[in-house]
Amino acid sequence: MIVTVNKLRSSSESALDVSSACEKVGEGAFNSLNSRTSFCQKFEQNLDLYDSSGSYVNTANIIGYIYTEENNPTNTLIWPVKFKFRTVYSDPTGPLAQISPRIECGTDEGVENCQLIGGMRSVLLTPGLSLEFPIQTVMNMTNRDKYSFDSMEIRANYNVIGQSLDINSPYLVSDRIPSLRCDVGLAKTGTQGCIFEDAPAVLTRINVNDQDVNESALHIRDAQLSGLPGRYIPEPDSIMPSYESSPLRRLRDLTLRRQNRSKSLQMCLAKFNSYSSTCAPSGDPEDAEVDCDCDEYPFAATMEGAANTEFIPVSVRKIDPSDNRRAGAYLGVFYTQQRVLDGEEFYINVE
Question: Start and end of every Deoxyribonuclease NucA/NucB domain (predicted)?
Fold first, then answer.
């Protein structure tokens, strides 16, 4: 038996009793996103239950939630998600059900794109809200350096408690969940990881309220307010950038990053008549951390850096060298954790 899950009608509801990730519950793959790491999506269906002789014994009306939280790991190909189920039975005194959810990713040239770790396990569909049920799925990146898993869907086998539960048991199929992009060695050499590719990458670690990097943050804020790109302004009730936003683009080419840095240092020398002798970093995660009092925005590790050929202005400012070093390190960590690839757009929110 196959049950196809219906889409939701509204994305305005909240399910904080499920998870903090479900402050807003989405009705589909796109509007269920919270960030590059987090989403919450709902699916619902009536499950008719039968005993071992095939006789009808009960119906379970389930509302399922699949979600990941903001701290979901991004630098691994083992992707964890969590489920909870809200259940109402037509006969409260009748038999209860168990369910075993998993992620299906399809095949490519006959090879499975992902695989459930640990085999099929189940959770009891108790009346009300079930216990949290985590699963882990390993994403197949063999002979791939980048791949978009854009056809992932939820499968869940179910059965009456006491009966066997396996791949041949009745199952439901949900709508697709958000597209997951994985890379190997592209965000940073020697690393691998996955993110939701339809969500914007937004750097928030450099903040005007953080005394360790507030000089860098104030420079970014002032530069953005003067019209330079990178400012993140989301659409109302959405994480997607509005038309008022203008992105930066990551730059990995070492020669071009050095050209950006050399140009900004020339600007600092012309403007301030000095800068520290160790000015070499560009913000790339593979660059060494060094102190430098010449801060430029947009960063040298962006296509909008000082030597850009698109006539995009650049701002330079003398700031505390340790502040500048920390901000550069935060940018490098952001590139790696958010899996921002060469040429990919990203934004900065310093407030």
Answer: 289-348
The structural domains of the chain, ordered by start, are 2-196 (2.60.40), 202-348 (no CATH)
pLDDT tens track for 294-314? 899 999 999 999 999 888 999
What's the rounded Cα separation, in Å, for the pair 215 and 223? 12
CA nearest to 114, candidates 148, 89, 87: 148
Instruction: Pick the closest to residue 36 from 270, 150, 194 (CA basis).
Output: 194
Euclidean distance between CA atoms 346 and 340, whole angstroms:
8
- Residue 234 contacts residue 221 (beta carbons within 8 Å): no
Tally Cβ neighbours within 10 Å of residue 14: 11
Q: How many other CB atoms are found less than 10 A from the CB of residue 213?
A: 26
Instruction: Spell out where 113-271 has E strands.
Output: 114-116, 123-125, 128-129, 133-139, 146-149, 153-160, 171-176, 180-184, 192-196, 202-203, 248-249
Q: Choose among 279, 285, 275: nearest CA to 260.
A: 279
Q: DSSP alpha helices (H): ranges in the chain?
A: 214-225, 254-272, 321-337
Q: What is the pTM of this model?
A: 0.89
